[in-house]
Amino acid sequence: MATKVFISYRRDDSKYQARMIHAAFSQVLPRDHVFMDVDTILPGANFRKILKDWVNQCEVLLALIGPGWIDAGDPKTKGRRLDNPSDFVRIEIGEALARDIPVVPVLLDGTHMPDVALLPDDLKELVDRQAEFVEYRTFDDDVKRLIRKLRLLEEEARQRAEEERRRQEAEDRRRLDEAEAEKRRLEEAEAEKRRLEEAEAEARWRDEDERRRQEAEIKQRADEAESKARRRDEDERRRQEKLHEEAQQRVEEDRRREEAAKKRCLNEAEVEKRREDDKRRRQAQAPVGETKKVALLQINSAKGNALKFAIFIALLAVAGASIVGIALYSLNQVSENTPEALPPQYSAPAKLSAQQPANLSAPAPAKLSPLAAYEEAAAKGDASAMVNLGNFYEKGVGVPQDYAKAREWYEKAAAKGDASAMNNLGMLYATGEGVPQDYATAREWYEKAAAKDNETAMVNLGLLYHKGQGVARDPAKAREWYEKAAAKGDTLAMIGLGLLYGQAQDYAKAREWYEQAAAKDNAMAMRNLGMLYEFGWGVPQDYAKAREWYEKAAAKGDASAKRYLEQLPTEQQAGGKR
Q1: b/e per residue, 67-98, with b = 16+ CB within 10 A?
Q2: pTM summary value
Q3: Is-contact 132 142, C-beta < 8 A?
Q4: CA 91 to CA 86: how far, in whole Å?
């Protein structure tokens, strides 16, 4: 263990504990690797300069916090020491936090973690760091435990440094290979240039003959193409004339069939008229409104297009033109109330009106493309169709990619309360696609979508607070949003929770969330479980289990897992570890 440790303390608060901790650490570290101002600074040395240099050199800072640490007074200013920017303790801890090295709050004799509201801005992050407790009665055991944990930190740092070294070596090898390949390419290009120059001198005398030959060939082909085009145009004109004649013949045949059908219907209507003649005579004296009611019931109960048309003709003969509108309306109602709905890509047939005659054989609806079908549905106010159109324009599916149109459709769907559209708008602003990147606006859209129970928006909010994008970094809020999405089964939220707990060194909790995501076939979660077992974070180090999880992730195409498998020690290299 060769970690450089800086012990930060207040003499009025914890000078005896600081000396005892210094003595304990000096037993396992070289004395010049443990810094405490009294014992380390030589007489006559620049105290402030040496203090700052040591903070910049140390790898771990222990912040000893006793009962009087937070309220320690400054006799010169009559205020708190922490409120003075020149306070040595504030400088020490602030410099370490700014360097983002491990800063361990050591809470002495039951002291609680200071309230964040009582800390200056440059020390507020201290409350997010994992604290350790040292009691008077269990001092030796507590200090030994602290030393063990710092050794783990050193091992993690060593592993990270080794990974960085390997990555840098691979990067150097890649750059060297690229440089050699570029050199070979330049040499080949130079050789090719010389060859071309030699070939150019040889081929120049042939160029003119080739040019004349090509001109003659082009002219011949142009003449042939023109002749073929004229023949094609003539053939196409004749084909169009033939198609026009055939179409006119079909129209005439349809007209004759329709007239024949109408005649058959009139005959059937005459039979029906005679059968109900007595009933109509009785109704002839009834009020007009009653007559319309009876006619409407008769039409709605009719079965088949031919019978409907026959009844319509019969009613027209008996009751006159005043009942035509009622009959047509009823035919429309029967058509509209049929249980089979048209597929989304089809448009509904137009309704009959009092000015349009009923057509016994209505043409089938024309099939629309998916884009046209969604545009038609969106024009009718369908929010889901608007979201799909936004996706088409955002991804360039079937249309030129156009983020402005994508945003326009998302905004229309969001105005109708569609949560997916709200989330998609947030992603456009977060990535800066088609709009200036704006995390604040992205967060507003995510919050609106999350309020409508959209789990993807919850994950996106968790990421903003996790990474500190557009907001102050807030692990608690990130965890809150991740947990809401994870409760709905979202695997990315589970991985986010695993990362949060891993950063807080609560590896047991991290493993629980990774296992839940892995149970849902998430390759990233499987790879992270392999890392826990490979390095023994929160579990006994077990290369066999690490290999098992890496193999599962690699089988799902995870490139990092494949690379970790290649770097994983064999049982012989691991000294017999599983």
Answers
A1: eebbebeeeeeeeebbebeebbbbbbbbbbbe
A2: 0.39
A3: yes
A4: 7
For the record, the structure tokens of 155 come out as 């091992």
The rounded distance, in Å, linking the Cα atoms of 149 and 127 is 19
As a whole number of angstroms, the distance between CA 331 and CA 340 comes to 17
Angle at CA of residue 280, ends 277 and 281, nearest 5°:
85
CA dihedral 399, 403, 404, 405 (to 10 degrees): 30
Task: State pLDDT tens for residues 81-130.
Answer: 998 888 889 888 998 999 888 999 999 998 999 999 999 999 999 999 99
CB 356 within 8 A of CB 324: no
Length of the chain counted residue by residue:
578
Coil, strand, or helix at residue 22? helix
Among 169, 173, 8, 197, residue whose Cα is nearest residue 91: 8
Alpha-helical segments (H) within 396-474: 403-415, 419-431, 439-451, 455-467
* Half-sphere exposure in the Cβ direction for 482 (13 Å, CA): 25
H-helix or E-strand spanning residue 35? strand 34-35
Alpha carbon distance 197, 199 (integer Å): 5
Phi and psi for 175 in degrees, rounded to 5? -65, -40
DSSP string, 94-122: HHHHHHT--EEEEEETTPPPPPGGGS-GG
Q: What are 340-351's pLDDT values in tens digits?
A: 332 332 233 323
| pLDDT tens readout for residues 152-193 | 666 766 777 788 888 899 999 999 999 999 999 999 999 999
- Rounded to whole angstroms, the Cα distance separating 117 from 123 reads 10
Residue 2 in tokens: 């060769």
Q: What is the pLDDT of residue 361?
A: 38
Strand order across the 132-134 sheet: 34-35, 5-8, 60-65, 103-108, 132-134
Residue bearing tokens 């493993």: 511
Token pair in block for residue 578: 């599983």
DSSP H or E stretch at residue 62: strand 60-65
Question: CB–CB of 58/35 below 8 Å?
Answer: yes
Give the residue from 419, 415, 413, 439 showing the smallest Cα distance to 428.
Answer: 439
Does the pLDDT of residue 295 top 90, yes or no? Answer: no
Structure-block tokens of residue 496:
């986010």
Using alpha carbons, list the distances in angstroms from residue 160 to 155, 164, 187, 259. Answer: 9, 6, 40, 89
Instruction: Please give the biggest Cα pair distance in the chain.
Output: 131
Identity of the amino acid at 29: L
Q: Of 38, 12, 10, 11, give the one whose Cα is nearest residue 23.
A: 38
Nearest C-alpha neighbor of 4 from the set 140, 101, 133: 101
Tokens representing 367 are: 């099939």
